[in-house]
Design goal:
Blueprint (H helix, E strand, L loop, with lengths): L4 E10 L3 H9 L4 H8 L2 E11 L4 E6 L5 H8 L7 E6 L2 E2 L5 H10 L1 E4 L11 H11 L4 H14 L15 H14 L4 E5 L7 H18 L2 E6 L2 H7 L2 E6 L2 E6 L1 H6 L4 H7 L10 H4 L7 E2 L4 H11 L3 E5 L5 E6 H9 L14 E2 L9 H6 L4 E4 L5 E5 L1 H5 L4
Parallel strand pairs: 3-8, 3-9, 6-7, 7-8, 11-12, 14-15
Antiparallel strand pairs: 1-2, 1-4, 4-5, 9-10, 12-13, 15-16
The structure holds adenosine-5'-diphosphate (ADP) and magnesium ion (MG).
The site of magnesium ion (MG) has 3 residues, from helix 3.
């Protein structure tokens, strides 16, 4: 798959002699050494990563690790000292002023930690503002702004001023403003860090909900590992201007690449991060409705299991049969349909393991993972939930 954004060897040095700092960086000197020797601050040191269309890519790291410096390069608010950034295959580092303006108007929008709203303008005017700059006519502008205000749940607040709104609501305005230009790419630099924990969680869930509809490509920055793992399809961990690991939340939890990341993940409650899809197994043992009880018995024996899910031709889940029932059915010449049970639990593949613990301790069957059409996607054996080894 072609990357939507490809960052290759990005370097960002702050100060008036970036080239001398860059030479030292190329020789393998680190951020501290370079600061001592040249007085230049390395914000980003040889960072490379790809982001795919529709992905939420999180950059996580402590304050000062270089997260903002990276994201500000992506819309050229910072001019990279070295390296290339390709968006849809075009190297934006080579863009002239006009191309940069066009990119910011059409392709990429940013949401800031401290909202960055115009305090003397209303909610509606704030959201309309970028459209006005682009020359969208007033009627159309209003229509688009109102739609986006509705999308972020602020209908009815259009005529208020930012300082009349709570932090969470102000950030909704920031989001509506960013969405108004219908950008492919959303850059979000710690957008929820200034909000209190409850509102923050609410905003995280709303962002996930929005994203499932809008399917933007999102680069999201946070210093909070729980936020990173909740939102990120993949997460890049930064330290001292470098990326030290990139992976899915599960990959990072399962095999942190160094002590620094181990420290980050050790207090994480895995059951809140790991989802059904991460621990389900593709059901190798399955029987079809048209099979008889003897096929079911064979299937269970071959796999060393005491119950088996039954599906129809389209993989739609029909029920489960147990070994006892199947054996009795053979003797009594019953069909599979006659012994189908429905006292099993199902879940979606996005469900967090934490939400499955209770079901797992109540049932004697595996949990079936199904899609909206009740198709069986996989099964989760109880031990993988309850053993805590996940
Ligand atoms: N405009 C700037 N001028 C000088 N140094 C800067 C500037 N912006 C950031 N830095 C430095 O670059 C490094 C990375 O900063 P930043 O990207 O803001 O980190 P983060 O967003 O992860 O907190 C820090 O050492 C910071 O002091
Ligand atoms: Mg920052």
């Amino acid at each position: 798959m072609e990357a939507k954004i490809k960052v290759d060897g990005l370097v960002q040095i702050f100060g008036n002699k970036p080239q001398s700092a860059l030479r030292r960086l190329r020789k393998g000197k680190n951020k501290d050494e370079i600061l001592k020797e040249t007085g230049q601050t390395v914000g980003v040191s040889d960072v490379s990563f790809d982001v795919y269309d529709g992905e939420i890519f999180v950059i996580m790291g402590l304050s000062g690790s270089g997260k903002s410096s990276v994201i500000r390069c992506l819309n050229l608010l910072n001019k990279p000292t070295a390296g290339d950034i390709y968006i849809d295959g075009e190297n934006i580092v080579k863009y002239d002023k006009k191309q940069i303006r066009k990119m910011r108007q059409n392709k990429i929008a940013m949401v800031f930690q401290h909202f960055g709203l115009l305090t003397h303008k209303t909610v509606l005017e704030n959201v309309e503002y970028g459209l006005g700059v682009r020359g969208v006519d007033p009627e159309e502008r209003r229509k688009i702004a109102l739609e986006n205000i509705e999308t972020v749940g602020l209908s009815g607040w259009e005529e208020m001023y930012p300082n009349e709104l709570s932090g969470g609501m102000q950030q909704r305005v920031g989001l509506a403003r960013a969405l108004a230009n219908d950008p492919d790419i959303l850059l979000m630099d710690e957008p929820f860090s200034a909000l209190d924990p409850l509102i923050r969680r609410e905003m995280q869930m709303e962002l996930l909900g929005l994203q499932s509809k809008l399917q933007k490509t999102i680069i999201f920055i946070t210093h909070d590992i729980n936020e990173a793992f909740k939102l990120g399809d993949r997460v890049a961990v930064m330290k001292d201007a470098k990326i030290v690991q990139i992976g899915t939340p599960e990959e990072i939890i399962e095999s942190p690449s160094n002590e620094y990341i181990e420290d980050f993940v050790k207090d994480i409650d895995r059951t809140k991060i790991i989802q059904a899809k991460n621990i389900m197994t593709k059901s190798t043992a399955l029987v079809s409705l048209k099979d008889g009880p003897s096929v079911a018995v064979k299937e269970m024996r071959a796999n060393g299991i005491a119950s088996v899910f039954v599906v129809d031709k389209g993989m739609k889940l029909q029920g489960i049969v147990t070994i006892e029932d199947a054996i009795a059915a053979i003797k009594e010449k019953k069909k599979l349909e006659d012994i189908l049970r429905d006292d099993y639990f199902t879940t979606s593949k996005e469900e967090y393991v934490q939400e499955l613990i209770e079901d797992a301790s109540e049932t004697k069957y595996p949990i079936a993972v199904t899609d909206e059409d009740n198709k069986l996607l996989g099964v989760i054996v109880r031990s993988s939930i309850l053993s805590g080894l996940i």
